[in-house]
Amino acid sequence: MVIKYSKEVDAIYIQFSDAKVFESDEEKPGIILDYDESGNIIGIEVLDASKKTSQPNGIVYEVA
Length: 64
What we know:
Blueprint: E1 2-6, E2 11-15, E3 23-28, E4 31-35, E5 41-47, H1 49-52
Antiparallel strand pairs: 1-2, 2-5, 3-4, 4-5
Organism: Sunxiuqinia dokdonensis
Protein name: DUF2283 domain-containing protein
Pfam family, one: DUF2283
């Protein structure tokens, strides 16, 4: 999994797979889900991230 924040466009992208994006859907305003050819979610993009999270450039990683 890869998580990237772009200050230039104020977007966070969470990548679950290296598969090629086949289709993208805006699930809610500013939340875009990327799917592979089999319909699996391979990425999530959050637009206007600084308005939707308190720390767009800080990540807390936990394993349960």
